[in-house]
Design goal:
By secondary structure, the chain is an alpha+beta fold. It is 42% helix and 19% strand. It is elongated and about 60 Å long.
Length: 266
């Protein structure tokens, strides 16, 4: 094979579509970020995809799925549905999850990329919970858990001064079984946020804090959820939005939430 005419980084190009739409998991996102940093070709391709996404997302732009693409998608789904041993689709399995699952299968990668472009006007498919989990995992993968590593709340709180435009409440919950480990700044939902790091035995709890869009000072609204094997607790209080995430026990995370709210409400 003539290597001079071979397409460079073809395997990475397949991942760019999922990366630009925030569809990759934290591990694959980290891999492609490192590759893009050293590959001008893929960096250029990424910029082209971002430009295309911006144009498609403009108001009034509508895309109709070409008949041949629609037929290919339906045929692929029918083929895989006929082979339950290869793919076990749980209840509530969405078309987007189907495409995501098969994104790295060579025979369907091109089809998946096409579907991303024609499924409708593009928008940001990620949710806050996706970004919270991704930031939590990334902090562990790249060994960047804290910018300021200390259990002293009186050191962590002033450390955020000048780095963010709000003052996050910082308390040490060692008596409740959740010692403070430090803090850092992170980036979620298009803005810089505070990340407070707590420990629960061998588990890490990342608590992300940023100003709430609505005035949440009068009442505390709490929700619990799980995503990709991680438990999450979300609440609003004092005009701030709080997201706690950990791979630890859901009951422990709920106790952490209650302990944090109790200490910061005094």
């Amino acid at each position: 094979m003539n290597t001079a005419t071979a397409r460079p980084c073809s395997e990475w190009e397949l991942m760019l579509h999922g990366f630009v739409d925030n569809e990759l998991d934290a591990a694959h996102s980290l891999q492609i970020e490192r590759h893009i940093a050293t590959c001008p070709h893929c960096a250029q391709q990424l910029e082209s995809l971002k430009t295309l996404k911006q144009r498609i997302a403009q108001p009034g732009v509508h895309w109709r799925t070409p008949d041949h693409v629609r037929a290919q998608v339906l045929a692929a789904i029918a083929q895989e549905a006929a082979q339950p041993a290869r793919v076990s689709a749980p209840r509530g399995f969405s078309a987007l999850e189907f495409v995501r699952k098969w994104l790295f299968v060579p025979s369907l990668a091109a089809l998946a990329a096409s579907l991303f472009l024609v499924i409708g006007p593009m928008n940001d498919r990620s949710t806050v919970s996706d970004e919270v989990v991704a930031s939590h995992v990334r902090s562990l993968l790249v060994d960047h858990l804290t910018d300021v590593a200390t259990s002293d709340q009186h050191t962590v709180k002033p450390w955020f001064n000048g780095k963010i435009d709000f003052a996050p409440p910082v308390v040490d919950l060692v008596r409740e079984g959740f010692p403070l480990a430090g803090g850092r700044v992170d980036y979620i939902g298009g803005r810089v946020v505070a990340a407070l790091v707590y420990k629960r035995q061998s588990h890490v709890i990342n608590l992300f804090v940023w100003p709430a869009q609505s005035d949440a000072a009068a009442a505390t609204v709490r929700t619990a959820s799980s995503r990709d094997g991680y438990n999450l607790e979300n609440w609003q209080a004092g005009g701030l939005n709080f997201w706690a995430v950990s791979d630890g026990n859901a009951d422990d995370l709920a106790r952490f939430r209650d302990a944090f709210i109790n200490r910061t409400s005094k």
